[in-house]
């Protein structure tokens, strides 16, 4: 390992499987304390969780199967249709008029004196 300060170039060539390299350190990025804590918590959880699973086996409830709706056994009956009364025309038919009977005279009883 080579200890470099920011902006420095490695004094030696570095050989990797990809060939020879010259390394320059552009900047140093140190994670914040919050990021370091989050990383440590994640690592601790990933180490702790499998030990719990092996100590307390996890079982899953049986998943219900999908309910299927049975297909209809008979075809639906054909709905009755009303008679159209002929073919449509360009000439409108006269509107039906309602006839109201004239009021008939009614008799109104007149009170009479009893003897």
Strand % is: 5-15%
User: What is the global morphology?
Assistant: elongated
- End-to-end Cα distance: 143 Å
Portion in helices? 10-25%
Return the string of H and E elements. EEH
The beta-strand count equals 2
What is the number of helices? 1
| Major pleated sheet | 2 strands, antiparallel
Structural class: mainly alpha
**Mean residue pLDDT:** 81
What is the spatial order of strands in the main beta sheet? 1-2
Would you identify the regions where 5 or more consecutive residues have pLDDT less than 50?
none
Rg result: 49 Å
Oligomer, anyone? Answer: single chain
In short:
The chain is mainly alpha-helical and 115 residues long.
List the helices and strands and how they pair.
Elements: E1 14-16, E2 19-21, H1 33-55
Antiparallel strand pairs: 1-2
Description of the molecule:
The chain has 115 residues and is mostly helical. The chain has a domain of 42 residues. It has one helix and two strands. Strands 1-2 form a two-stranded antiparallel ribbon. The termini are far apart.
């Amino acid at each position: 390992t080579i200890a470099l300060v920011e902006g420095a170039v490695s004094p030696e060539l570095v050989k990797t499987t990809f060939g020879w390299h010259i390394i320059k350190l552009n900047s140093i990025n140190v994670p914040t304390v919050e990021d370091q804590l989050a990383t440590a918590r994640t690592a601790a959880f990933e180490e702790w969780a499998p030990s719990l699973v092996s100590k307390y086996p996890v079982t899953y409830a049986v998943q219900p199967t999908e309910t299927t709706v049975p297909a209809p056994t008979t075809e639906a009956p054909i709905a009755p249709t009303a008679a159209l009364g002929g073919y449509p025309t360009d000439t409108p038919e006269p509107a039906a008029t309602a006839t109201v009977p004239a009021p008939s005279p009614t008799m109104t009883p007149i009170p009479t004196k009893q003897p």
